[in-house]
Amino acid sequence: MPAQHILLVEDDPDLLSLLTEILEDEGYRVSGAAQRQQARAALRKGDVDLLIADSVLRGGNGDDVAKAAARRGMPIIMMSGEPDRIARLSGGPLPFLQKPFRAAQLLRLIRRLLP
Q1: How many domains does the structure of the chain reveal?
Q2: What is the pLDDT of residues 75-100, one digit of tens each?
Q3: Buried b (16+ CB within 10 A) or exposed e, 66-82
Q4: What is the edge-to-edge ordering of all strands in the sheet holding 96-98?
Q5: For labeling, which of 7, 54, 57, 101 is most exposed (least CB within 10 Å)?
């Protein structure tokens, strides 16, 4: 069985690298995107099982990427370092993590969403 594919959208290169390493160590296949355009292109390929996206990206936000993933019925985890943004997102149906978070929190959410 092929590894489950996670699209990770994060514009901080250090965090993108760290999270990619953590997820790959857990056996997931990870594609990283630092910009919305890259993320949307990866979604169009159609082989992504889960989207993890920062809600605030340089040059825009990750919310529209999440909406595109939701239209495909894909599970989504949003991340943000802005508490007020988290408060707005928490009213919605998407799981979210407030930065900084522990890797264990992220992995628990992933395991809940990807059986």
Answers
A1: 1
A2: 999 998 876 766 565 555 678 888 99
A3: bebbeeeebbbbbbbbe
A4: 29-33, 5-9, 50-54, 76-80, 96-98
A5: 101
